[in-house]
Write a structure and sequence with these properties.
Length: about 180
């Protein structure tokens, strides 16, 4: 089912990730109509038309992002937190010497111009003695305090697989089995 991003008929450039993702979802739905799935993508996919297309096709999303990007969304998140609509928690893993911090805000408009597209925002920070590793994202799945660590692991799982795929494509001599 996976397919490469290639030049479409009559085009000079390869298509972008969004067009390839749309084709992939159509193919997925044709092969497995009732399948429930969560699409994980990076922050560039956190835009209203792309999210609406996935929802029309019956898919959920878990989109990675950076704190403060897009600015409009994170201004809304800060306003919601100041209004008391956000929750925060922290978990200490003493054996690993790591502190996990979670912040959640539900039902925030993705952009001011498309207020009908509501998302749920989560921010995660993992800090140890020598480093702080932030991670944030948006999803259409209702976020509660208890399963937030599972959602964050799901969002972060995209990176190793994407990295391995890119390395395989960049180094044609490598074997896929190796990666």
């Amino acid at each position: 089912m996976p397919e490469p991003m290639v030049k479409q008929d009559g085009r000079e450039k390869n298509e972008g990730e969004r067009h390839a993702a749309k084709r992939c979802i159509v193919t997925l739905r044709q092969a497995h109509p009732p399948l429930k799935c969560i699409i994980t993508e990076d922050r560039r996919s956190a835009n209203a038309p792309h999210i609406e297309t996935r929802h029309d096709d019956g898919c959920h999303d878990l989109l990675g992002g950076k704190e403060g990007d897009p600015a409009d969304l994170f201004n809304q998140v800060q306003a919601a937190q100041q209004a008391g609509r956000g929750t925060a928690s922290e978990r200490h893993d003493r054996a690993a010497g790591v502190v996990h911090r979670f912040r959640l805000v539900n039902d925030v408009p993705l952009t001011a111009s498309r207020a009908a597209v509501q998302v749920h925002c989560l921010a995660y920070g993992e800090s140890s003695q020598d480093q702080v590793q932030p991670c944030s994202g948006v999803t259409d799945l209702r976020v509660r305090q208890r399963p937030v660590s599972q959602l964050m692991r799901g969002g972060r799982a995209r990176w190793p697989s994407e990295h391995a795929t890119c390395n395989t494509l960049k180094n044609p001599g490598d074997k896929v089995e190796h990666t």
